[in-house]
Every structure is written in C-alpha cells, then in structure tokens.
Design brief:
GO molecular function (chain B): ABC-type transporter activity
Number of helices of chain A: 17
Keywords (chain B): Membrane, Transmembrane, Transmembrane helix
InterPro entries (chain B): DUF3526
Protein name (chain B): DUF3526 domain-containing protein
Strand content of chain A: under 5%
Oligomer: heterodimer
Pfam families (chain B): ABC2_membrane_2, DUF3526
Distance between the termini of chain A: 60 Å
Distance between the termini of chain B: 21 Å
Helix content of chain A: 55-70%
Order of helices and strands of chain A: HHHEEHHHHHHHHHHHHHH
Structural class of chain B: mainly alpha
Number of domains of chain B: 1
Largest interface: A-B, 100 and 101 residues
Structural class of chain A: mainly alpha
Shape of chain A: elongated
Amino acid sequence: MGPGVIGLWRHELRLFLRQPMALPLLLLVVLLSAGSVWAGLAEVAHQREVIARIQPQQAADVAAVAASAAADGDPGNAAYYTHHVTWDPPSDLAFIALGQRDVAPFVLRVRALALEGQINESETYNAELALPGRFDWAFVLTYLAPLFAIALLHDLVASEREAGRLALLGAMARSRRGLWARRALLRSGLLFAALTLPLIVGGLIANSGWALLGVIGLAAAYLAFWTLACLAAAWLRLGSVSAAAALAAVWLIVTLVLPGLALVAINAAIPVRQGVELTLAQREAVHGGWDKPKPATMAAFFRAEPAWRNTAPVRGGFHWKWYYAFQHLGDLSVAEPVRAYRAGLERRDALTRQVGYVLPPVGLQLALHRLARTDLQAQLAYQDRIRAYHAQLRRFYYGYLFTDRPFQAADFARAPRWPEPPPQP
Amino acid sequence: MKTVRLLAGNDWRLMARSRVAQLALLMLLALSIVAAVTAVAHRDDSNALRARFQQQADRAFDGQPARHPHRMVHYGHFVFRPLPALAGFDPGVDGFTGNTIFLEGHRQNSANFGDVRQSSLLARFGQLTPAFVLQALAPLVLIFVGFGLIANERERGTLRLLRVHGRSAAEVLGGKLLALGGIAAVLLTPALAALIWLVASARAEPLAAGLLALGYIGYLALWVLGIVIVSALVRSARGALIALLGLWTLTTILVPRIGPDIALRLEPQLTRLETDIAIQRDLQRLGDSHNPDDPHFAAFKARILAQYGVSRVEDLPLNYRGLVALEGERLTASLFDRYATAQFAQQRRQGTIATRLGLLSPAVAIRSLSMALAGTDLEGHRRFLQQAEAYRYGIVQRLNRLQAETVTYVDDGNRNRDPEAARRVRIDPRHWQEVPDFTYRPASLAERLAAAAPGAGILLVWLGLAAAAAVAAIRRLEETV
C-alpha cells in the first residue's frame, strides 16, 4: 500500500520545507506582500482624508468670497471669484495599484471661466520620489513575484539530477509527470498563498468585494506563466545554474527591456505635443475675445447656448455676459485640438494594451490598474466628469447673468455640487 | 601583475567561448546603443520643440496690439524649461515634471504637460536611457557573466590547482577582478561615447561629463568587486548566483521604491488645492483690495495721499488703480514665495530621507549623483519654478507700473463708459516689446557638483566597504583552499 494522496502532498511539503532557502523565501514574500498592502491602504486612506479635509476649507473659501469679492450681488463677480471643488475618490481596490494617482490630481478646483486653461493643471508632488514608482502590491506581484518563482522553481528537476537522485525518483514514482506536477504545483501554490493572503486581508479591510477575485485570478495566471517558464527550463534539461541565469534573463527582458523599448516606440509613433499647442491656441482665442465686436461674439455664443438668445442685449464697454460668452467661445474654438489630444492619449493607451497581449508583465499591470481604476482611462473619465460639471456651473451662473438677477449670499449654496459624496476617511 | 593579467586573459578566453556570456554582452551593448541614440534624439527633439514654443510665445507677447496694461497682465506669458545637454544621457525627473508654465497676474499656475501624464503606464516601467541601462541592467549582466568566476573553479577543483601552482589568493582575486572589470569597461563604452557626443554636439561641460563617467565607473567597479567577493565566499555557483540576484533585486528594485514611500509617509505634502485656499485665506487677512473698508488698503491709501500731499486719489500724479494693483500683486507674490519656500523645504526634507535610505543602495546613490551632474534633478525643476515666478512678478509689476504711470485715473475709471477714454487707456505696444524675454539660468557647474557630492560620498563609502570585504575574501581563500 502506498501513501494516500494527502500523505503524498504532506510528504512533498516536508521535503520542500526542509530546504534551507524555502521557508525564509516564503516568509520574505509574505512580508513584502503585507508591506505593500499596508502601504497601499495607507496611501488610499491618505487620499480619502485629503478629500474629506478640503471640504471645510473649501466652504470657508466660498464664504469669504461671498462676504468680500462678490458681496455686491453681481453674478459676474460671484462666478469669477468662486472656485468649485471636484474630487476623484480612490476605488475600493485602488490600494493594490496606486497607478497615476500620485502624479495626476485627484482633487481639482474649477471656475466658470474657460475650462481648457484649468483642466490640465497638475498636482504638486516630489518628482524625484515619483520617479522610481510606488511600492504597491501590483509592483510586488509584477516585478518581485517572478524572481521568487524563479528562485523556488528553477532547479526543480536539475537539483535532483545534480544530486544523482533523478533516476531513482523516476523509478519510484508511480507517474513521473505526476511527481513533477505535484512539486511544481506545491511550490508555486505556496508562493501564491504567500502573495495573496495579505492581499485578501487588505481586501477585507478595504471592503473591495468581488473584484478582488479578479485580482487573485490575474495573480494565479501570472504565476502560472512563470511556473511554466521554469518548467520549460527543466524540459530543456538546463543545469540549475544555467536555468537560473536563463530565467533571470527572461525576466529582465520581459519586465524591463521590452517595456522600455515599447515606450520609446509608442511615444515616437504618436507625438502628443498638441497639449501645449492647444493651450497656446486657447489663450489666444480667449484673449482675442476682448477685441472682437460684441454683437458677433454674442451671436456666436447664442448659437452654442440658444437658451439665452432672447435676453437683454449687451451695451456699453464691459458686461460680464459678454466676458463669459467669449470665455466659453475660447473653449469651443479649441474643441478639435482637445479631441485630437485626447485621441492621441487614447491611441497610446490602446497600443500599450496591444503590447500587454504579448508581454505578461505589461498585460498584468494594465489589468490591475484597470480593476483598481487608477489608469489613464480613469484619469480621462475624471476629466469628463469635470467637463460635465463645469457645463452645469456655467449654466447655473448664466441663469443669473442673462436674466440680470442679483446673486445674493444665499445663492452661493445653490450652486451645483460635485455629484459624488466625499468619502469618509 | 603579470600573473593577474595572465589569469584574466584565461577568463576572457573562457567567456569568449561561453554562449551565455556572449549573448548577455551583445544584448546589453545593443540595448545601450539603442538607449543612447533614442535618449539623445529625444533630448534634442524636446529641446528644439520647447525652444520653438518659447519663440512662439515671445512673438505672441511682443505682437500684442495697443491695450490697457491690465489686459496684458491677464494675457500673460508662457515660459518653457529648456533641457540641459546631459539630459540626453540622464533625463532624470524631466518626464515627471511639467515643462511649461502659464504666467499671469494674481495667480501662480502649475507647470503642466509632463510626459508621465501623457504616457501610458509603460512610463512607470522605467525609461530606457543610458543612465538606466548602466544603473539597473549592466550590474545584472555583470552578475550573469561573473557569478561563477571563482565559485565554478572551486566546484571544478581548479581553484586548488591554481593555488598548488603557486598563485596567491590575492593574485587569483586580482585576475578575476581584472577579467570582470574588462567586461564592465566594454559595457561602459556606448554610454561613454554618448557622453563624448553630447560634449561635442550639444556643448555639455566636459568636466560634468567626465565626472559622470567617473561616477558610473565607480558604480560598476563596486558591482565588479561585489560579484567577485560573493563568488569567492559562497560555496556553490548556484548559491552565488541566487545571492547576487537577491542583492541586485534589493538594491536596485526594492530599496529605490520603498524609500519614497517612507519619505512621503513621514513628510506628507499638501495638495495644490489646499495651498491655493491657504494663500487666499492669508491674502484676505493681509489686505482685501475689494473691501473699501479694508484696514491695510485704507492705510496704504492714506500713506500714498500723504506722500504726494494731496487729499483725493484723483489729484495724485499717478493712477491710483495702478498703485493698488502694484500693492496687491506685492502681497500675493509674497505669499506665493512664502508657500513655495515652505514646499521646497519640505521636498528637500523628503529628499534627505530618501537619500539616507540610499545608504542601503548604491543604485539610489548613483541615480542622485547622475541626475545632479546632468542637471536633471528636482533642484533643476525648482530653479525653473523660482525663476519663472521671479519673471512673472517682474512682468506683472512692470505692467502695473505702466498702468500707474501712463493711464490716468479718470480715464481708467471711465474706460467702460467713454469710448474716448477707452482709446486713451490703450498704450503703445512698444511697451510689450520692451519686456525682456525669459532666459532660464541653469545651475552652475559648482552648484551641480555640490548637489552630486552626497551621492558620490555614499558611493565612496560603499567602495571602501567593498575593498575591506575583498581583503577578507582573500584571507578566506587562503584559509579554505
């Protein structure tokens, strides 16, 4: 009678853990994974706290505007001096992959003036700290996990061959294939558990829900890729030293070299300097508005905003109606370059996705950041929400400007609010 | 010495026969060449583009028609940060900072359109530049080529043979160091060629380029020492390889990422939005030019009236509105300066924390040295922000002074009612042409050398430690073989 299935596995586990490197390596993985989950959770909590703590500051700022610069009841002053706050709270899964949220603003204030000069504002951050990237779980999985998989699996067969036990093992095992499959599965399974247990704890703390299963599935697939790579080295009958060197070289090529080359190629293929160009053009269009004849400006504005067509005409040297009209026309005049700029960014993103189909680390990073809602798409979606909100704000102020209604202290509270509730820290 | 050369020659012959060594070396050389060519081209293109945009902005400003000076305060100006020549070797934080700022009155805008926000996530995988190749990839190739240099000989028993033939342990170690050092020298060539090219074509300072080369020579020498020592101390070739890969992962991949996280946790920074609100709040306290009863501006008015010995602002020889604009901008700019100074100080504290952790990793040290010498570190961006703000303040105050001196108070008040007054407040466009163009003053060589000193110091400490370890390794070899 041979040992039962469970007994077999337990035996293999004992053999594996008896290796001097096995347990320390696994503990190190748990430590790194837990550390990255903690760092991610702390960063997400910090971002939520920022969004929560700006609310009273913003309220005080609006109150000060109401009491001072816009106290005369002129809606033009109110619209000019009042900033409106927007925010993009981190998702419940953002802690695994912090993505671009450290270099792109997640809180931004806008005014009812031309938007294109405001929406590309950047956040203050320490670029030298952003340069190497953040220590999040996605980093541990993408970069470090393969190295640990290589350390644990590169000599799966070779170590037995080099110790002279291979023939004996082959003769003793009921199925050779079963033996190696069991050993490979055991080692990669332990690595998988060491990686994902802290993640699951973090997911429970962050209340991530079912999306976490997607992350776990991705991690399993990614580890499976590296396990197969290690088995390929065994299949090629590489010695343990050559196997380690060859696998580390593969890691280097697919995680550092090829993504770097792909970035150079994509950015060269799709230049997006329109960002600067459209900003320069928009400023010319907005300021050119001062010198254009008022009736022509108002006629063009009413074509875009017909609701105010039959309101009192603009007379005299300056009127806020006219000012806000040419602000908006400035935005409209660059609608095409704005679209082209965004299309350029999306093209770059789409090409990166194609690279991701070929390079597992790139594909994994993209998928994780999509699940975490911290990628370029999420950034653009936030900008879209800001655009929609800005349109609401404009029309809110138009409602006073074009009907010559005074803007009183109570009206500040009637301004449209950012549609999402601020998160509780 | 002859023995050392002889031993090294033998190793080179072995490497020349090893397919793995050949492949690793060729791949890295090809990669270095690609990195050097693309980084230099990218630097040239970006710099030319920025120079063109700057010219366009200068022309647009100078070409404005006759206008009320305050209109020009809001028309504003754009400035672009030029790229230093050595950015073709190490672009540093350039891609992570905006390179253009819109300058206008009463406001301090951010530097926008950094590459990182315009690129996909790939930008976070690390940019393929000569600096990155030498910092991260070259050590790995040296590990592949060198991990077995002594460990293999030990496993095969040839190490004992060498010693029996009268080779001292120091000679053996010296031979291995020379062998791997030769490989490191080969790896360095494309990057050195790129540096020479930048000196010749883009007028990079030869001293900075030379010190940059020296820094990388020291960094790779450190790895050569480390690899040979580990190969001498660890029993098996496989153990040496695993230990070296672990060391590389720790120092080159892990520590550089953990450092910033710790620095940000210890020194969390305010968002731009909060700074904006705080500046507005402080401004209200300092003086509110919209409020007719504001004590600061009431006192200002009294002082001006007393200074000119008149009782009404209409009787002043200067346009009072222009004087208020000057005073208002002075108050705002003093707050911008105060907040910017605090923010820069905090970023320096963050940098210090990260550099201290760099003691754990020579890769962090060489990166900081490299960016500092290339002029692409955060300090360079700070200089740009400070100079842009000084330029902004200069232009705005110049225009405000024009408003005070060339536009009368009465016309200024009637410009929206009286077309004749509106015509008179538009002053001659030569005033815009007289505004000097923005010229960015990069850090002097001395400042860059000072900024590179901490990184260089850490590398020297590491080299000292490695040399001590080499002596210990020689002693171990003497005993064990």
